[in-house]
Write the structure tokens for this entry.
Amino acid sequence: MLSVTCALLLSVGACSGGEEKTSEPDPKEPNKTTAAKIAAVNPLTGGTLAKAPANPVFVVKIDNTPASAPQTSVDKADLVVEQTVEGGITRLAALFYTRLPGNVGHVRSMRATDIGIAKPVRGQVVASGGAGRTISRIKDAGIPIHSQDAGSPGLSRDSGSAPYNVVVDLARLTKDVKNTQPERPYFQWSPAGAAAPKGPQVTSASVKFSRTHTTSWRFNGKAWKRTNGTSAKEFGAKNLVVLWADEKDAGYTDPAGNRVPETTFEGSGKAVVFVGGTRVNATWKKPNNASTIVLRTRNGQAMTLPRGKTWIELLSKNESTALSAK
């Protein structure tokens, strides 16, 4: 088995993915369209749909610490984004569109980073609550919010200890919300039958977000799954996408006095994309919060993602983050 290990300090190392140099121009971002026109394709996975679901995309904020274990129904999401929050820990933003579980959790508070996560597919944020300035910014961005603190339907507490015991019934919640459908795909998806990307073959990866948190992964021949996650059933990702983005101070601290970071999910940066067991060194571009993510190989070749579930590891350019794979 070919082994490849790259440690990255503040940026992705220049490991060769074996891609051939090309002068092909940048792919254009898909134009905004109507729900009816994209109904045949799931914007979160690229998969075929008979028709658009009768519900919006819900972006559920899920705690990612042992205190709230086990996570429930994460495996039923279409796409997941792992983001940095205060104290070096991470939180999940699980995007649900084609399946609406009756028990998702444990739900935690929202962050301004969620604007860039939700906007591409007109997602609606589901959270336990949030800081006042964060709530204002998300509302100003035109993103609906459903929170336990505000008494939104479908959110409740189970028998666990607060604040790690909030759950949401998405099937119940959807009865009381406006059905805002996506207008563009999250990524540029490959057509059916497209050739698989070329690159080194790997079976494991470790993504270091901070000194206190690393997410470990293993490819089982069919999907990437966390090996140190807390889900009752782990999400299976065909595509594991690691992105480095700008980060700034959100302007407030948590109750313990920790600075709250805000990863800006727009702009551009370096990336590493695992498609099945293949590693591809890449770059990403997202002109604004609502844009489709456009990928290119590090040597300039346009790159589309194979259809399937995707997990995004959203890392900060400012932190001493690292990635290793073999």
About this structure: The chain has one domain: 1-326.
